[in-house]
Amino acid sequence: MPPDGPVPGSPEDWLAYARRDLAMARAPLPDGAAYENLCFHAQQAAEKAVKAVYRWRASDFRYTLDIDDLLDGLARLGIDIPDEVREAADVTRFAWEARYPGVAEPVTEDEYREAVTHRPPWLSVGPKLSSRPGHADVQARVRPAKATGR
Fold first, then answer.
1. Do 90 and 117 contact (CB within 8 A), yes or no?
2. Model confidence at 139, in pLDDT bands (50, 70, 90)?
């Protein structure tokens, strides 16, 4: 349930949660678990890292699992989304397909490995978020959009 009022947590808090989910996603597959369980944590890591950028910009975000939707919102805020980040948004499917029986085929080990290797573009923003908005230290992965004549 979304909180009433402003979104809680600092960018660093959101990145800490993202890194925890990434650690869970990269953990060895426990007995009795499936790759779907680990892929869900990969999706959560990506989602929370994107939400950290919103917090860095002191902007609210929709409470959604759809990473493309979240990235579109960042673009509307004037942030250029690099191609490798856009491509990695395919982990959104693990937010629901991987959690419910019969929605999709079981996740293969190859799909799992791809989901986990997509994490560096998301979390590479992290160390650069220590400054506040207005500083140009996030350009490596999240750059201000180029102005157009419109």
1. no
2. very low
- Compute the mean pLDDT over every residue in the chain, rounded to the nearest whole number: 78
Q: Which helix (H) or strand (E) holds 14?
A: helix 11-26
**Contact call for residues 57 and 79 (beta carbons, < 8 A):** yes
Q: State pTM to two decimals.
A: 0.78
Q: How is 15-78 classified by DSSP, letter by letter? A: HHHHHHHHHHHHS---TT--HHHHHHHHHHHHHHHHHHHHHHTT------S-HHHHHHHHHHTT
- Average pLDDT on 22-29 reads 94
Q: Is residue 125 within 8 Å of 53, Cβ to Cβ?
A: yes
**Phi, psi of 7, deg, nearest 5:** -65, 130
What's the DSSP call for residue 2? P
Q: Report the number of secondary-structure helices (H) and strands (E) in the chain.
A: 6, 2
Contact 52, 82 (CB under 8 A): no
User: Percentage of the chain surpassing pLDDT 70?
Assistant: 74
H or E segment and range at residue 12: helix 11-26
